[in-house]
Amino acid sequence: MSLPFRAIQYFIEVARCESFSQAAKRLHVSQSAVSHQVALLEESLGAQLFIRRGRQTMLSALGESYFNEVAGAISTIEEATVNFKQNDSRQVSLAVHGSLAVKWLIPALDEFRQRYTNIELTLQMLTQDGNFDIRWADCFITTKPPATGYQRYHLYDETLKPYCSKALFSEVNRLKNADELIKYPLLSAISAFASGKPGTDWQRWFEKANLQLPATAKVHHFSHLLLAAEAAKYGQGIALLNEFMTTEQERAENLFELPFHSIKTDDSFYFVYPSTTAKSPGVEALGDWLVNLCRDRSGRPALS
């Protein structure tokens, strides 16, 4: 006797939900389609599988016996299908800015690999933000998420805080007012604000304190936060740094956060991937892990 697999699948779902309408929603089909398939199965078996009492749907004695026999087999098939999809998506390629990868992501990768032993993650260096070539990478960390056609996870809003070396910290930490920082060289990163001019980061920092950066302030300019961070480590001044561009070891040994206010830049970082790969277990696992990693780093829930 040949039994239709679809009819058995629909029967299992109705039994689990105890409802034809709920089973239809889970299967993404109409209720009449579910009823038709169950009727075919009952006709094939020559037995009534459900008892309907008003809105309540219950398994008959024969229906419960049959369910106990076939449910395990269906679960085995479903599990095998999931495992096949996971194995099929083990290799995931992520494109990310080199600075973000080196200072934040790579130091944390061991935890990801221990948790997801079946995923082989490859990192690609993102040289041009906004270039989402899926022939090159499966997913991206970007400040310019596409408007359509992509799934996206919000990771964090970039925030700059004042840091200096251990040697300077003992002096600067005693300061009470923000305007006293001009006694020391200020290390400015042009990359902190895409549309800004040299010194924009410190200008905005002083403006937040209702102050003006004096023209006499000694400001040293760098093209990137990483360069400013290195200069700060060597005691060359005070830098406004993104916490995600420094390692925990650096903040413990070489870079010390000063007890003054922070400012937000114009950038927020997102994990994005094409909607066509939205059901890839490997990519989704990576996205969830990155969101949690940012939540742990900032101490605040990541916004969606």
Protein model, in words:
The chain has 304 residues and is α/β, with parallel strands linked by helices. The protein has three domains: 5-88, Winged helix-like DNA-binding domain superfamily/Winged helix DNA-binding domain (Arc Repressor Mutant, subunit A); 91-156 and 268-298, D-Maltodextrin-Binding Protein, domain 2 (3-Layer(aba) Sandwich); 158-266, D-Maltodextrin-Binding Protein, domain 2. 42% of the residues lie in helices and 22% in strands. The chain is built from eleven helices and eleven strands. It has helices at 5-17, 20-27, 31-45, 61-88, 98-105, 109-115, 166-172, 200-208, 225-233, 248-253, 281-298, and strands spanning 50-53, 56-59, 91-96, 120-125, 139-142, 150-164, 186-189, 219-222, 238-242, 256-257, 263-274. Helix 1 crosses helix 4 (61-88). It starts with a helix and ends in a 6-residue tail after the last helix.
Characteristic terms for this protein:
D-Maltodextrin-Binding Protein, domain 2, two-stranded antiparallel ribbon, alpha/beta, 22% strand, elongated, 304 residues, disordered C terminus, Arc Repressor Mutant, subunit A
The overall pLDDT, averaged over residues, is: 86
CATH class of the largest domain: Alpha Beta
In one word, what is the shape? elongated
| Unreliable spans | 299-304
Sheet having the most strands: 9 strands, mixed
Task: Provide the helix percentage.
Answer: 40-55%
- Could you tell me the radius of gyration in angstroms? 29 Å
DSSP strand content: 15-25%
Oligomeric state of the chains? single chain
CATH homologous superfamily caption of the largest domain:
Periplasmic binding protein-like II
**Order of helical and strand elements:** HHHEEHEHHEEEHEHEHEHEEH
CATH topology of the largest domain: D-Maltodextrin-Binding Protein, domain 2
- The helix-and-strand class reads alpha/beta
CATH architecture of the largest domain: 3-Layer(aba) Sandwich
End-to-end Cα distance: 52 Å
Structure summary, number of beta strands: 11
- Please, how many helices? 11
